[in-house]
């Protein structure tokens, strides 16, 4: 797929174009604090927070941009943003 600057992309192309490579901070879960409220998944602007079978969530770091919305909105501070090490 070719992306043209200033062009229009087809819907769903973000699943093809991995956008997590330019992240500065990455979210880390503290599963002991998580109450499974799903706010992180609902508020994530990307499809980067995925539910697991046990009701908890995991990050898809290929698509997480490190915006920190999940950590900021978590009512139990179960998500911490840490500096990305490359």
The secondary-structure class comes to alpha+beta
What CATH calls the topology is Alpha-Beta Plaits
Reading the helices and strands in chain order gives EHEEHE
Largest sheet properties: 2 strands, antiparallel
Could you please describe the fold and organization of this structure?
With 86 residues, the protein is α+β, with helices and mostly antiparallel strands. It has a single domain, classed as 2-Layer Sandwich (Alpha-Beta Plaits). The strands form 2 sheets. It has a two-stranded antiparallel sheet with strand order 1-4. A two-stranded antiparallel ribbon has the order 2-3. A hairpin with a 5-residue loop joins strand 2 and strand 3.
Give the structure's gist in a few sentences:
The chain has 86 residues and is of the alpha+beta class. The protein is built from 2 helices and 4 strands.
Label this structure with key terms.
alpha+beta
Give me the secondary-structure topology:
Blueprint: E1 25-29, H1 39-43, E2 49-51, E3 57-59, H2 69-73, E4 79-83
Antiparallel strand pairs: 1-4, 2-3
